[in-house]
């Protein structure tokens, strides 16, 4: 077995391994390259390391280690090991994990996060043996859009008086590129602070936020915004293209500024987003919610989303008090 650090030339191989291990959320070499470049160019300068395991010249697994910029702490890392199903049981995962462990030790890591799906007992046992314990669960929830009836939601689809729904593309046409993105960022940054997570959210600068528009899955028409007559964005609901399936769409953040909550804005925007998706021939909509986010889980259940096996986030150590 040979384990080495990867280069951009390995992106197609890495994407293939990831898709074989986790077909629930497929990636492409283009998307993977964009995500890695975004991490490496992030102003916080987070550590990013990617390794490839080869047997007889064939790639059979990958190891990934980074400092998550969304809840950045110099002592906190996210670790991931993926091995092709046909190569499990031969020590590939253990060898990759040892590489990551040596790197973590050398960097003085205090907290390491990792995870596996609840229907992956082998992965969960692997993490448990290495000292990880569960911290939070996240459900994939999937809606069959072909069976969704928008006529049943006419009342809920109405925004309160003084608000209107407009896509980011529409807001750009009205306000100009920079002003529209700043209005979008202002609402996103506030709503994001209250999303359940296992660490404090790092403030999101406008410059970093603006770069998401260059992502290969970003859809300006898929960002639905509730806007006041003065042009302020007070709520949002995001959809992103799936990198491999043109009939599937993935949702991002649905959130409302604190002063505007409990008025049905999130539901109205999600309904507008689903309408946009139906018009474009989308058949399935995927979303992901922490099991502690009870209001959003209840809302998605009302809409007809149905849960898939949960992803179990696990942790070893802690940066609390450091």
TrEMBL record:
N-acetyltransferase domain segment(s): 1-155, 182-322
Gene Ontology molecular function terms on file: acyltransferase activity, transferring groups other than amino-acyl groups
InterPro entries per record: Acyl_CoA_acyltransferase, Bact_Acetyltransf, GNAT_dom
CDD domains: NAT_SF
Coiled coil: none
Keywords, ordered alphabetically: Acyltransferase, Transferase
Superkingdom of source: Bacteria
Annotated transmembrane regions: none
Pfam family, one: Acetyltransf_1
SUPFAM superfamilies, per the entry: Acyl-CoA N-acyltransferases (Nat)
PROSITE patterns with a match to the protein in the record: GNAT
PANTHER family in UniProt: AMINOALKYLPHOSPHONATE N-ACETYLTRANSFERASE-RELATED-RELATED, GCN5-RELATED N-ACETYLTRANSFERASE
UniProt name for this protein: N-acetyltransferase GCN5
Native organism: Deinococcus aerius
């Amino acid at each position: 077995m040979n384990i080495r650090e990867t280069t951009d030339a390995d992106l197609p191989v890495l994407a293939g391994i990831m898709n074989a291990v986790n077909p629930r959320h497929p990636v492409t070499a283009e998307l993977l390259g964009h995500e890695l470049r975004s991490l490496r160019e992030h102003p916080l300068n987070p550590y990013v390391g990617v390794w490839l395991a080869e047997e007889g010249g064939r790639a059979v697994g990958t190891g990934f280690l980074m400092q998550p910029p969304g809840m950045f702490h110099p002592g906190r890392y996210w670790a991931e090991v993926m091995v092709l199903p046909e190569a499990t049981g031969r020590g590939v995962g253990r060898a990759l994990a040892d590489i990551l462990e040596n790197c973590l030790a050398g960097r003085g890591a205090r907290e390491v996060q990792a995870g596996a799906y609840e229907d992956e007992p082998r992965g969960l046992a692997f993490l448990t043996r290495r000292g990880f314990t569960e911290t939070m669960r996240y459900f994939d929830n999937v809606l069959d859009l072909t069976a969704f009836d928008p006529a049943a939601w006419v009342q809920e689809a109405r925004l309160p008086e003084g608000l209107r729904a407009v896509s980011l593309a529409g807001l750009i046409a009205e306000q100009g590129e920079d002003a529209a993105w700043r209005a979008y960022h202002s609402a996103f940054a506030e709503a994001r602070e209250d999303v359940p997570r296992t660490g404090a959210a790092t403030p999101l600068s406008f410059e970093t936020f603006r770069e998401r528009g260059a992502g290969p899955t970003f859809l300006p028409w898929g960002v639905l915004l509730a806007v006041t007559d003065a042009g302020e964005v007070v709520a949002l609901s995001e959809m992103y293209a799936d990198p491999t399936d043109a009939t599937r769409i993935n949702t991002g953040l649905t959130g409302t500024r604190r002063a505007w909550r409990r008025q049905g804005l999130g539901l109205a925007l999600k309904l507008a987003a689903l309408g946009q998706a139906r018009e474009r021939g989308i058949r399935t909509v995927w979303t992901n919610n922490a099991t502690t986010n009870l209001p959003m889980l209840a809302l998605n259940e009302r809409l007809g989303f149905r849960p898939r096996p949960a992803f179990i986030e696990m942790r070893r150590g802690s940066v609390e008090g450091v």
